Amino acid sequence: MWFFNQMCTSKARLDDKTVVITGASDGIGKETARDLYARGARVILACRDMEKTNKAVEDIKNNPPSRITKDEYKTNVGELVIYHLDLRSLKSVRDCAKNLLTYETTINILINNAGVCACPYEKTTDGNELTLQVNHLGHFLLTLLLLPKMKLSPNCRIINISSITHIFGDINFDDINLEKSYSPLMSYAQSKLANILFTKALARRLKEANIYGITVYSLHPGLVPTGITRCTDYTLFPGANYFWYICTRLFCNTVEQGAQTTIYCSVDEQIANESGLYYYNCRVSTPYRKANNPEYVDKLWDASCRLLHLEPEENFNTFLETVSKTL
């Protein structure tokens, strides 16, 4: 509920830091970009719809977060940059990563925010179920491709936006693309569970490979009225999207409030050495038991690699070199 919402109180600056946010043209992603831009970061909005993203940039430039005044906002802000990224296409993911690696000196924070929910069944041109690819596989690949650049910078963070709906999810390893058992909401829940499992797997592999200075976080942002539910009119019932919008407007967080845990995981100094944990309402929380299953963590990593036509390797540094060669 909105009246229990915690706001990120850190006043940390991000001058000379570069932040990549996927799906930053709307909703939580845009509000996160607004806040981090106000802290002096070079904020990269990695998005699919360029017209919408350009409008988002203008909105961010002209409207400060509620925590500061317009006069304060005129000074000490960062930069806003747009890169094209369509997570429905693994080629687009690779192209975006290649451009980021080529044109950006550093990448300090990666926020895997973009997502879809309750879509009709569809397979991407890569042969993966749409929700699984957009919400998990695309971010999985983008993260692996950007890690070599992030390894060169100190104090980097990777934030994966999950959801409390992971409690309803399971990973159907025998039918991960849900060809035999598709449900719009179960597909979403599976992808959100995958976000948490990926966070745990990556944190562990970074530690085992003695790669320090990169921490990984997953989180539930709260229930927020964003455009992610736009498909529900077709997959659930007519008016479902409007019903959700009204309910969340009345009883749940605003979009700015929904961005607070993402901002917290991006900037808070006290969690700088925490990695692999799950957060809600600007504090560590405990995910559902399936998210804590070590067998699931490893099986999903291997399954994700197979879907991306990558061969899992014990040596994580060698694995990253192999992934980089796919560019």
Write structural notes for this entry:
- By secondary structure, the protein is α/β, with parallel strands linked by helices.
- It is built from twelve helices and eight strands.
- The protein has helices at residues 27-38, 50-62, 70-73, 90-103, 130-150, 184-208, 232-235, 240-251, 255-258, 260-267, 294-307, 316-324; strands spanning 18-22, 42-47, 79-84, 109-112, 156-161, 214-220, 277-280, 284-285.
- An eight-stranded mixed sheet has the order 3-2-1-4-5-6-7-8, with helices on both faces.
- Strand 5 (156-161), helix 6 (184-208) and strand 6 (214-220) form a beta-alpha-beta unit.
- It starts with 17 loop residues before the first strand and ends with a helix.
Q: Structural class of the helix and strand makeup?
A: alpha/beta
Q: What's the β-strand tally?
A: 8
Count of alpha/pi helices: 12
Strand percentage, roughly? 5-15%
Nearest-integer average pLDDT: 92
Quote the distance from N terminus to C terminus.
Answer: 44 Å
Query: In one word, what is the shape?
Result: globular
Range of helix content: 40-55%
Series of secondary-structure elements, N-terminal to C-terminal: EHEHHEHEHEHEHHHHEEHH
